[in-house]
Amino acid sequence: MNRSDHLKVLIDEQALQERVKTLGRQIREDYGEEPITAIGVLKGSFIFMADLVRAIGGDVKVEFLGVSSYHGGTRSTGVVRITQDLRHPIEGQHCLIIEDIVDTGLTMDYLHRMLDVRGPKSLKTVSLLDKPANREIEGVDIDFVGFTIPDEFVVGYGLDLGELFRNLPYIAVYTP
Ligand code: PRP
């Protein structure tokens, strides 16, 4: 069986690009001319972040946090592990956590609490995808959402299955 037999496009490249541009404009409007510290959550957010920070424009600092919770499978283990911390303090800065997907909400909840105690001037969140059906944490607040998606396992545009498919230019549902 060909690997493309497992993939069904959910959000095509054009729809992604248009939505990311709109999100960027919306975020820039929200912050006005204030500088933003964009905090990308690795690895999944790397492609979304690259497109989003260009769409936001203005003064943007780029930082990365390494986090892992899935360990290669299609199900969350529920354990959030920091694999790489920020390089610089974020005290007094307008920070924006950038995620590719909020699924159970464990990662976003953990990161929000972890960064909030470091004294940012503000702390907001953006996720390209939101999968509310799988939520395990109540009240996870996402300030900006690209697409709300059904309860399917998705890959592409940064999202992986066993480290593959991150380089697809679209989001696809993966069926084994
Ligand atoms: C994914 C995704 C989020 C998290 C969301 O990361 O990038 O960080 O899971 O899931 P949750 O809402 O259930 O916590 P993953 O652990 O797959 O690592 P990766 O980004 O390196 O692929």
Explain what this protein looks like in three dimensions:
The chain has helices at residues 13-31, 46-56, 106-116; strands spanning 7-11, 36-42, 60-68, 81-84, 94-102, 122-130, 144-148, 154-155, 171-174. The chain is built from three helices and nine strands. The strands form two sheets. The protein has a six-stranded mixed sheet with strand order 4-3-2-5-6-7, with helices on both faces. Strands 1-9-8 form a three-stranded antiparallel sheet, with helices on one face. The protein has a single domain (3-69, 79-174), classed as Rossmann fold (3-Layer(aba) Sandwich). The radius of gyration is 16 Å and the shape is globular. Helix 1 packs across helix 2. Helix 3 links the parallel strand 5 and strand 6. Bound molecules: 1-O-pyrophosphono-5-O-phosphono-alpha-D-ribofuranose.
